[in-house]
Amino acid sequence: MAGGSSRAIRLVKIAGIQVDIDYSWLIIFGLVLWSLASGYFPQAYPGHTRAQYWIVGLVATLFFFSSVLFHELCHAFMGNRLGENIDRITLFIFGGMAHLTGEPKNADDEFKIAVVGPLSSLALGLVFWLVAGALSGAGAVTLWAAVFRYLAYLNVALAVFNLLPGYPLDGGRLLRAVLWKRWGSIERATARAADWGNTIAWGLMLMGVLEIFGGALIGGLWLIFIGLFLRGAAAGGYQGTMVEQMLQRVRVGDIMTPDPITLDSGISVSDAVENYFLRLGHGGFPVATEGRVVGMLTLSMVSKCPVEERAGKKAGDLMRPLDASIEISPSATALAAMHQMNDSTSRRLVVLDNGKFVGLVTLTGITRFVQIKSQLGTAATKVSPAAGQDSVQEH
User: Fold this and answer.
1) Are residues 213 and 227 in the same domain?
2) Do residue 219 and residue 88 come from a single domain?
3) What is the pLDDT of residues 208-221, one digit of tens each?
4) For 54-68, how does the pLDDT look when each residue is reduced to its tens digit (9 = 90+)?
5) Is the C or the N end of the chain the one with fewer CB within 10 Å?
6) pLDDT band at 4 (very low <50, low <70, confident <90, very high)
7) How many CA atoms lie within 13 Å of 100's alpha carbon, on the beta-carbon side?
8) What percent of the chain is modeled with pLDDT above 70?
9) What is the domain extent for residue 343?
10) Catalytic residues, which ones?
């Protein structure tokens, strides 16, 4: 799947793309290994030692998840070739996801990014099938040929499953691309593709229930879990697209806190805690020297300074110096601000208009705007400065 998890372990970087694994992936890795080593291979190919079954089971499991990673890397490479910014992949319990920092620019790009995944899985399936045939022809141990034949089947199954026309599966993204091209509206196309995804999810769960009544408890439970996951992903993907389109149409200047309170760089950290953080309840403040903003001091920075040292430390000592990573223009979109916060790991950005400090935009403020806009409907296009001021009081 291609799309947009904090519960992840950093694994490796490939061609500039960070590969993470969700903790849930460890569960499925263990289950797949156990089922292959103690179930499938011993039953289908008897006559080998337990150690041999566990070795081929481990090899098959590693190759399978490498296949999932290859599938997602192909999404990422195609997206980056088309000018999208995909710099992270997460492997999770039912597969993987290449994280786009935004929606594709147009329907054609969406189609290309989505279709390359299933095609890569089909290509891998062919490669594994040819390897299995070569091993059989060379007189290799039947068990090893069986491993690659199994991998061929799995990759074809992965391609077929991903081609189901339900968002956010690749087939659902292909459907969205076609509808987007026809209707000219990504919102309408996403809604229809997500509806299909929801329908497919319920179908999988129904099949799971029937499997359980038919005596296949484990297989039925897996179908139900996959259906539940797909249903949640379809809803989340649709909501994410709607929020992104909303933020794309809003400027930072519309939702920033204008002329926020600043800290003098010479103030002691203990004074900043007593008279600003505790009294005003804000999560961070711009830091200024002689009226010019030079950095940002946040609650997390202060909390790392021991209490007994705060009286002797100045705000300027602990602040994050101002640089391009935490500066933004009031004409930038709120979506761009969100991406910049993510890249800079900062929840707040200093707003500069031609070098002049004019405001502060925060992650909480953007979130509050989305909540207000969603409650009021499409008629609302801006929130008042007062609403923005309230939003930065929460950390």
Assistant:
1) yes
2) yes
3) 999 999 988 878 88
4) 999 999 999 999 999
5) C
6) very low
7) 26
8) 91
9) 252-391
10) 72
